[in-house]
Amino acid sequence: MDYQATTQQLNEYRQQISELRTKMRETQAIVEPHEVENYVFKTLQGDVKLSELFGEKEDLFIIHNMGKSCAYCTLWADGFNGVAHHLENRAAFVVTTPDDPETQQKFAQSRGWGFRMASHEGANFAQDMGYAGDHGFTPGVSVFKKEGGKILRVSDADLGPYDDFCSVWHFFAMLPEGVGGWEAKFAY
Predict the structure, then answer these.
(1) What's the pLDDT band for 186 if we cut at 50, 70, 90?
(2) What is the DSSP pairing of strand 40-43 with strand 34-36?
């Protein structure tokens, strides 16, 4: 297929994706929220409840990150570092991992991360949210809302290659060979 025809076809697919995203937003707007408990997390400042992670905001993004042992979760977190201040203008944003707070801080400093972190070490938060099981932790994002003294989970999504939350994969998809065997690393 020549360049012009390929570009035309790709633009048609992009339009279809845009239309699907509109349908997804419409569906998300009518979701029946799920009440969750006020989980306790560990931070360098001490224990903090889920309700406190909201700060002054009514909405909260929690990233389920596998911690410093995962190069792929690090790739996503590197990207979140660039957008966290934009997200925090609208909602609270916190990255959670099973690592203890001291390990989190040391790793975050080595990466230049500026977003807030909290540890769910020893808690059942990740399991209850569906991001931990028999095979360990998995990455994702959950969205919570405070309403009438309750904490409601209103959305979640898995994180993985070609998701909507890491642009690296979409750039690679534009290359003739795609990812071409590329793998995330802590350093290149």
Answers:
(1) very high
(2) unpaired
SS (H, E, C) 85-150: HHHHCCCEEEEEECCCHHHHHHHHHHHCCCCEEEECCCCCHHHHHCCEECCEECCEEEEEEEECCE
Output the CA–CA distances (angstroms, integers) from residue 55 to 52, 68, 101, 152, in the order listed: 6, 26, 19, 15
Q: Residue 157 and residue 42: Cα distance in Å, rounded?
A: 23
Domain edges within the chain? 31-173
In this prediction the pTM is 0.94
Q: What is the pLDDT of residues 142-169, one digit of tens each?
A: 999 999 999 999 999 999 999 999 999 9
CATH 3.40.50.2300 is right for the domain spanning 31-173? no
Confidence of residue 1 (pLDDT cuts 50, 70, 90): confident
Distance CA 71, CA 93 (A): 21
Alpha-carbon distances of 94 from 54, 80, 114, rounded to whole Å? 9, 10, 11
> Among 64, 90, 61, 91, which residue's Cα sits nearest to residue 76?
64
Distance of CA 187 to the CA centre of its chain: 21
In the block, residue with structure tokens 């660039």: 82
